[in-house]
Every structure is written in structure tokens, then in C-alpha cells.
Amino acid sequence: MSEAIQQIAERLRGLRDVLGISVEEMAEVCRLTPEQYLRLESGTEDISIDMLHTIARKYGVEPVSYTHLRAHETGRNL
């Protein structure tokens, strides 16, 4: 999988851990099996925009574009 997907997956896993949400709960929210959800968090399966929005709503965060994330990391103003 691409580096971008891997980075997003790592952030999703980290946020879920910080919020204390179980894999089973997230799988239910996303209408997936726990195994399918873990593939998203491991970066081995691509994450659709729709799925990112579903996860963001559950986590109580605003979904942002990958371009915005990269701009923030590099200090560039896009």
C-alpha cells in the first residue's frame, strides 16, 4: 500500500487508542467485521473517502484533505 495510506492508517489507529474505542465498536460503526476494520488500520486495505468521513464523525474530528495534512507537516501554506 502507498505511504500516504499507511500514514492515514497509523493516525486512525492512534486516535482510536487515545479515545479508548474498541476495534469491535469501530467495525460496527463502519459496517465491517473487526478483521476488515483492522486491515484498514494496518494500511493493507485502501480507505475510501466515505469511510474516512464515517470514522471522523465517530472520533468527533473534522475530516481534512491529505493535501492539508501534508501542508501542515511541511509548514507550507496551500
Features:
mainly alpha, globular, 78 residues
Overview of this protein structure:
It is a single chain. By secondary structure, the chain is an all-alpha fold. The chain is 69% helix and 0% strand. It has five helices and no strands. The longest helix has 17 residues, at 3-19. It is globular. 12% of the residues are buried.
| Discrete helix count | 5
- C-alpha Rg, in Å? 13 Å
Largest sheet descriptor: none
* Overall pLDDT metric: 85
Helix content percent band: 55-70%
Number of strands: 0
Q: Point out poorly predicted stretches.
A: none
Taken as a percent bin, the fraction of beta residues is: under 5%
Question: What is the element layout, followed by pairings?
Answer:
Blueprint: H1 3-19, H2 23-30, H3 34-42, H4 49-59, H5 66-74
Helix pairs in contact: 2-3
Give a quick precis of the structure:
Helices cover 69% and strands 0% of the residues. The protein has 78 residues and is an all-alpha fold.
